[in-house]
Each structure stands twice: as C-alpha cells, then as structure tokens.
Design brief:
The protein is α/β, with parallel strands linked by helices and about 300 residues long. It folds into 2 domains: about 210 residues, PAC-like subunit (Rossmann fold, 3-Layer(aba) Sandwich); about 50 residues, no CATH class. The strands form 2 sheets. The chain has an 8-stranded mixed β-sheet with strand order 1-3-6-7-2-8-10-9, sandwiched between helices. It has a two-stranded antiparallel ribbon with strand order 4-5.
Length: about 300
C-alpha cells in the first residue's frame, strides 16, 4: 500500500526552532502599492533567509494562469523556473527564529494548503502567525500610515491598537490561514497598511516600513527599517514638491487632511465648523486625478 505523497519538499530536514513567528505574504490578493510584497522582500534580506520548504506547484498552482518562465539562451532551453509557494527561515538581529511564507497565492485546494501549513507550523513550534496586506484608503501622504487588523480571535483584535473594520469582502488565502492556525491554538492575525488612494499604483515605502515595524513590535523582533524609511523620505519630498507646485493640488490636499483628521478625531485649530467637508473618497479621487494629470499623457 502506497502512502499519499506530501504536497511539499523540505530542503534537508525540518530544523528545531525556538518559538518562531510565521510571517505570511502571498502574492495574488489585495496589495496596494505592492507595499506588503516590498515588506516581505525587506524581511527576506533582513533575516538572511534561506529556503526551507517548497510547496508542490502541481497541487496548488494553475500553470496556465501562472506560466513557468523558460530561460532561453541562444536557442537552448536552459531552464524552466516554476513559481510556487515557499517557506523560508532565518533570524532577526537578536537571533530570534523567523519563518516567512511567501510566493504566489495558491490557485486551488486552499483548505488543503491551509491544513498543510497549519501542520507544518505545529511541527516547527510556531508561536504566532502574522499576515500582511495593503489596501487603498482615503488618507493623505502627510499623515502616518494607518494599519487595520484581522483575526479570528476577538481578544487579539481588541488588544491591537489598529483600525477594526466591519465589512463583508472576498477573502484571500491569508484569511484562511488565520482560521487554520487559530483552530489548532496558534494565535493568528493580519496587518493591513492603508495606502493613500492617489499613490496606490506606485511604490509606497512608508507603508512597507510601517508593516515591518508593526510586526517587530508584535513579535518582539529586532530588524532595521532605515533603508525603507530613507526611501519613504525621498518619496515624501517628491510628493510634497509636486503638490506645492500647484495651488489646486495644495488646496485639495489640505481638504483631504482636514477630512482625514475629522474622521480620526483630530481637531485642527483652523477648522471652520461651518464648512462642508466632502467625503474622503471624493477628495482622494480628485487628488488622484490631479496627480495623474501631471504624468506624461495625463488628461486634464
């Protein structure tokens, strides 16, 4: 009698780890500005991660939707590069064990994938799981990046000082993993960066830094985010210059700031209580259009 093959391959043997945190970012679901993916890339380098587990692409990936890459050199088909989920392992600056679940979001067999990851997390002694994502939000780039949270555990949601939303939305695999790990007693949560609408199509390193720093705070990790913060500073200067060069931009940003502050309970001494403030979404749409008009080929 033959046994069912495992839907993953371990490089070497599973190591003995000391209460690692599992950080999850699978490409394929909502990630405005690619902020969560950039945060994961930063983590891969910061913890000097190495391959640990490769999941079976034939079990979880539709290769007609995510075709493998053929490396063709002078007519020679030298290699086929397959895209599949993987788990990496490394250590933070203090030697704490860290696991990273990254790569493409599975196209199929989500519950099987979640059970498989949960089983591996149990074997590896995972202490908690933290997922990452990012979504467009009516926020100005002049305010600190806001974060929201998801978790099957109401106590975790209440403890985290992030935005708590009430909405019915399609789920990604990260949300399925939250439940799979929660069901076996491993605390699980997702952290989502709120990206200003008008920069959602470009990189936003401030959000990537905010995600990494929030994970460090929650998981007790020590990781350097200075490179991301430098990139964020350069981008902030460019956005400020772009806005200040056009009085309409500056006025619209000011209104967006006022609306954002009102929603978040921040009162400004210059606020006119009789003024009618448009919705954040309306203002963000106008700012986005203004900034788009400055690009080559933009429409006025």
């Amino acid at each position: 009698m033959t046994s069912t093959p495992l839907p993953f391959t371990v490089k070497g043997q599973l190591p003995t780890l000391d209460s690692p945190v599992l950080i999850v970012m699978l490409n394929g679901w909502i990630d405005a500005s690619g902020a969560a993916n950039a945060a994961m890339e930063h983590l891969k380098n910061a913890i000097v991660s190495r391959d640990l587990i490769t999941f079976d692409g034939d079990a979880f990936i539709d290769y007609r939707a995510r075709r493998p890459m053929m490396e063709l050199r002078e007519g020679v088909n030298t290699r086929i590069v397959w895209s599949c989920p993987e788990m990496r392992v490394g250590n933070d600056e203090d030697g704490n064990d860290v696991l990273l679940l990254t790569g493409p979001e599975p196209d199929t067999a989500w519950q099987h994938f979640a059970r498989t990851v949960a089983g591996l997390a149990q074997q590896l002694g995972v202490e908690k799981m933290i997922g990452m994502g990012a979504y467009p939000y009516g926020a100005p780039h002049t305010r600190a990046v806001g974060l929201s949270t998801t978790s099957p555990d109401a106590d975790i949601a209440a403890r985290l000082s992030f935005t708590k939303n009430s909405v019915d939305v399609p789920a990604g695999v990260e949300a399925i993993l939250e439940h799979a790990l929660h069901d076996i007693g491993i605390p699980a949560m997702g952290m989502w960066a709120q990206i200003p609408h008008y920069v959602a199509s470009m990189a936003y390193p401030a959000a990537s830094a905010a995600l990494v720093e929030a994970i460090c705070l929650e998981a007790g990790l020590t990781l350097d985010t200075s490179a991301l913060r430098r990139e964020a500073g350069v981008q902030r200067e460019r956005l400020d210059q772009l806005v200040s060069s056009n009085p309409e931009h500056a006025e619209m940003l000011g209104k967006l700031e006022t609306a954002y502050d009102e929603i978040h309970g921040i009162r400004s001494s210059t606020t006119n209580d009789d003024a009618v403030i448009p919705s954040v979404d309306e203002l963000a749409a106008e700012v986005e259009q203004f900034l788009r008009d400055q690009q080559p080929g933009g429409q006025s």
